[in-house]
Amino acid sequence: MISTSIFSSSIAWAKAAYDRGLKTAGTPFATRFMLAFAVLESIIIPIPVDPLLVAVVLAKPMKWLRMALACTLASVIGGGGGWALGAILGLGIHDILAMFPEKLAAPTAFAAVEAGFASWGLILVFIGAFSPLPYKVIAVSAGLLGFGLLPFLLVSLVGRGLRFIIVAAIARHHGDPKTVIGLLSLLIGLIVGGIWLTH
């Protein structure tokens, strides 16, 4: 059994590095850290990369689109890694998740996503890529349940791309993280509501 204290320490370190990334948003370190974080968020870290993207864009507003696209690519690469974990480990992933702290493993989220895939399929991948749903859970579950890698990556690219471009564009033109989060939440609510009404 892997000690939960190791994972607690890892999460604490990630949060500390995350705070450092926010404070040094205008530096090359912040950009590199944002990209690395985007990869890891799609596999295991339960902290969204969006505030880092907002901070970097606010520090480098003229590069907002480049930062959004780079963040998208990094996140989808991480999603591919999550898909591979699910595909390779199969049902054994549940045994591995049982060794993690509940907040990190998110067993309830995994169970809900696996059930949702039966009726939603790749639509769930898009919703997970675009919305605040835990994308890492979507990625691992897609590999576990046998969804094709290429369709998964393409749908993820669209969903993550839309999300990060919207976040970066609002940050670029409004410069207020609260506005970014508020408008993004509204847009997500409208899209999810529309899908629910037509399902």
Secondary-structure blueprint of this entry?
Layout: H1 4-23, H2 28-41, H3 50-59, H4 64-89, H5 92-97, H6 102-105, H7 107-120, H8 122-130, H9 135-144, H10 149-174, H11 177-198
Textual characterization of the structure:
The chain is mainly α and 199 residues long. It has one domain. Helix content is 81%, strand content 0%. It is globular, with a radius of gyration of 17 Å. The termini are far apart. Keywords: Membrane, Transmembrane, Transmembrane helix. The chain crosses the membrane at residues 29-47, 67-92, 104-131, 137-158, 179-197.
Q: How many domains?
A: 1
**How large is the count of helical segments?**
11
| Beta-strand share of residues | under 5%
Rg over C-alpha atoms, rounded to the nearest angstrom: 17 Å
What is the global morphology?
Answer: globular
Total strand segments:
0
InterPro entries: DedA_domain
Organism: Puniceispirillum marinum (strain IMCC1322)
Protein name: Membrane protein, DedA family
Keywords: Membrane, Transmembrane, Transmembrane helix
